[in-house]
Design a protein that fits this description.
The chain is an all-alpha fold and 85 residues long. Helix content is 28%, strand content 0%. The chain is globular and about 30 Å long. The N and C termini lie far apart (28 Å).
Length: 85
């Protein structure tokens, strides 16, 4: 099933030139969501500037204990295998 259908809306891929420009797009309101690395995004989630929806990997990250895994949300195929914290 496509991501847009799962989310109940429309998703447009916008290829930013890295995580920093993507984070800037979120903070400026240019974008509504990003898929980004936990290390770069974690400070924004912890201080409440962004909301973490899910992390990839088999377990929740120690640095983001309140953010569920994709598998916990019913998306086991979204496990990128990068969340090992």
């Amino acid at each position: 099933m496509e991501v847009a259908a799962k989310l109940g809306g429309e998703v447009t891929h916008v290829p930013y030139r890295g995580g920093a420009p993507a984070l800037l797009a979120i903070s400026s309101g240019e974008a509504d969501m990003i898929i980004n690395g936990a290390t770069a995004t974690q400070p924004y989630v912890v201080n409440g500037q962004m909301r973490g929806i899910a992390v990839s990997g088999p377990h929740r990250l120690a640095a983001l204990p309140n953010v569920p895994t994709f598998a916990e949300l019913g998306w086991p195929m979204a496990d990128a295998g990068t969340g090992r914290g």
